Structure formats: C-alpha cells, structure tokens
Amino acid sequence: MKRHFSTIILAILLLIASISSLFLGVLEMNISGLLSGNIEQIETLLISRLPRLLAILCTGVGLSVAGLIMQQLCMNKFVSPSTGATISSAQFGILIALLFIPNSTIWGRAFFSFIAAILGTWLFVWFIQKVTFKEAVMVPLVGIMFGNVIGGLTSFLAYKYEMTQALSTWLVGSFSTVLRGQYELVYLTVPLVIIAFIFANHFNIVGMGRDFSQNLGISYNKILFMGLTIAAVLTASVVVVVGAISYIGLIVPNLVAMFKGDKIQGTLVDTALFGALFVLVCDMIGRTVIKPYELPIELIVGILGSILFIGLLFYRLKNGRKSIRLGTTNNTSCCSCTPKLEEK
User: What does pTM read for this prediction?
Assistant: First the structure.
C-alpha cells in the first residue's frame, strides 16, 4: 500500500481536477442543468468540454511517457521531445503534408508528422552516440540546436510558399480549438503507453548499455529503436492535434524520479498521472487568468516549465551522481554522450 500511495493520491487529484475542468469555461454549465436535461449544456459537455478534457489527459500522458522513455534509453535526464528535436521534426512533417497534399485530412498530416518525428529522433540519437561529450548538459544543448536547425528550415519553407499562417496552428499548443471529431488522433497514446509498460524492463536493460543488453539476450538495436519510435509517435500525435507544448516530457519525469526512483516500470504510471494532472492544471490556469478569454497552454507551461527546468538544472548539476543517470565506466552505456564523472 505504501508503494502505491503516491499513485493513489495522484489519481484522486486528477479525478477532482478533471471534474472541475468540465465546469470551467465561458458558457455556464452545472450539475443541476445537466440532470434536468438542458439541451444546450449537454451539447456543450459532449461537443466541447469532454473532448477537451480527454485531449488534455492524452496530451499529458503522451508527452510525459515519451520523455521518460527517451531519458531512460539515452541515460540522460535532460533529454525529452523538446530537447531531442522530436517536436520540431513533427512540425516539419506537418508542413510537408500541407505543401504536397494541401487538402489532406488530419490522418494524412499525422502520417507525415509520424515519419518526420521518427527520423528526426533517430538521427539525433545516432549523432549523440557517435560523439562523446564531457558534460551531461551538452546532450540537450545539441538537441536544441538540432531542433532549431529543423525549425529554421520549416520557417524558411513556410515563408517561401506562404504557408506561415496555415502552419501557425501547430507552432503554439492550445486546446481552444479541440472539438468532437477533431481530437480522436490522440487516442493513439493509450495503446502506445500500454506497449511501453509491457516493454518497460527491456527499456531499463537497454538503457544500461549494448554489452549488458546482449549478455541478457536482449536485442539492443531493436528495443532502442522501438522505444524511440514509440516516443516519437506519442509526441507527433499530440503535435498534430494540439500543437507544440514544451517542457512536459522534460519536467514531469524528473520530478517523479526524485520521489520514485529511475526504474521505468515503477515510475511509468505515476509519470503518466502527474503529466496529465500538470497539463490539466496549466490549462485551467490559462482559462482563468484573463477570463472570459483564454491563454494558450504553451504560454503557461512555458513559464512554469522554464522555472522548474532551471531549478532541475541546478539540482542535477549540484548532486552529480546522485541525480544524473550515468553509464558504467566500461563504455557500455546506451549513448556515448553519457558523462563519466570521477568518484568523489
């Protein structure tokens, strides 16, 4: 019971926040109106409020689990979809779909986004495996620079072909446009998270290095690329529906790891619940601050995430081996970028 105490608390808080979120908005909606059969309130619930809530929950779960998988496989606590060029690559894929198939459906744009996100993530991990870095923070910095290169190419093509306005929907994350029939793509997070939970032990083993994995009979390359593919598709499915939301995959797994440890199977459920709760709370803040208007969730998450990221950065660098996931000293780590600090 003690082991699952945090999971129970997070589930209860998420349930309370979810119910509160349904009754937060410009249009008035209350329990008495729903029970009395008020048609307007029931339509508001089914067409807008409930789809928005489900999209928020799937977004929080998807980005958090994607960040957890990437951090485990790369053995670096600063790697995430936003610092590993996954989000930028997904946006680039959407632009390609808009350029070559202007009348494509959301599933058509999602296909291009999936392919671009997968290739971008694979390329990033391949690069950091080939280069040895002395500092842990160099890995996300390289990822940010790589993401900015992709983002610059995306902006160039958007300006050249006058697609800036069409692409702007996916540049800033917001749930204001989520309605029934436009968000169901994020349901992909459910089977992908289940698959991630099933292969959680394999991700742990692969994260300990190629030699260690092969000694235990685990196919290093297959599990590595499967995990990266799951993380990329989780991220792309969110970007296609909601837009880019930074820091979720970076902040949430780190905060959960401080209390639950680094084993992915033991932290995956808590990471998913806390990620959904964090996104939901940020969305409620965005709907409340300048009510009846609404702030994009990317703005709220960006402010809170920046503050938390700076705090985590100082915490990780200050505590060294106690908080940064390091590989062994015999070069068997997943990514050769993993720092090897001297014992104090």
Answer: 0.84
